[in-house]
Structures are given as C-alpha cells and as structure tokens.
Amino acid sequence: MYDPDAPTGSGFWHWIVVDIPANVNELIINAGTKNLVPKGAIQSITDYGIKGFGGPCPPVGHGFHQYIITVYALKTDKLGTDENTNPAVVGFNLWNQTLAKASIVAYYKR
Questions:
Q1: Could you tell me the end-to-end alpha-carbon distance of the chain, in angstroms, rounded to an integer?
Q2: Which end of the chain is more exposed for a tag (fewer CB within 10 A), N or C?
C-alpha cells in the first residue's frame, strides 16, 4: 500500500508483501498487523521502519491522500528480496519481473 501524496518528496510505503503464492486469492483480516500472511509470503520493511502494515495517517489538514493497493503477476515465484529489503529495491525487482498488475485506490484525510 503506497501513499503518493505523503509530504516526503517520494511518497510513503505503508505495506509491502512479496512472494504470495499464486494459488492465494485473498488475505485474511489483520494479515499485515498480526503477521498472518500466507505461508511463504514475506512482509518487507515499510517507510514506518517496520515489517508489516502501518495504517494511513496523513497530516491533519493536508487533504485527501491516495492509498494505492497493487497486486502484481510476476514471471517468477520468488522476487529475490527479504524482510529487510527497502521499498525502492522491492519496486525495482517488481518492475523487472512484472507480467501484469492491477490497483485499487482508497482515499483518506484527517
């Protein structure tokens, strides 16, 4: 989950999960906060500096922020990253291995 509207100059990564098995078609509630991702999946470090989901928290009065959730179909079963890989490197590896992707966008403000 990525917020391109965060006032950082580079957006803000709230959640990164890689290596989700191809036969998985849903994630259970609280998968990212209670480390309940499917077996074999890896939660990588976010811009919060944690491994797992960090919720939306735009600055008060900053207006609506976009929260983009994207699922990728890859050329490989394993992305080649680990739980300590930063978002930029995950993104580069995704770019290199992507067959297709789909996104949904949610909006939130405080």
A1: 18
A2: C
For residue 53, what are the β-bridge partners? none
Confidence of residue 96 (pLDDT cuts 50, 70, 90): very high
Structure-token pair, residue 69: 């959730």
Question: Hey, what are 78's tokens?
Answer: 């394993």
For residue 101, the one-letter residue type is K
DSSP-based three-state secondary structure for 79? coil
The sign of the torsion formed by the CA atoms of 8, 54, 104, 38 equals: positive
* pTM of full prediction above 0.85: yes
Distance, CA of 55 to CA of 37 (rounded, Å) = 16
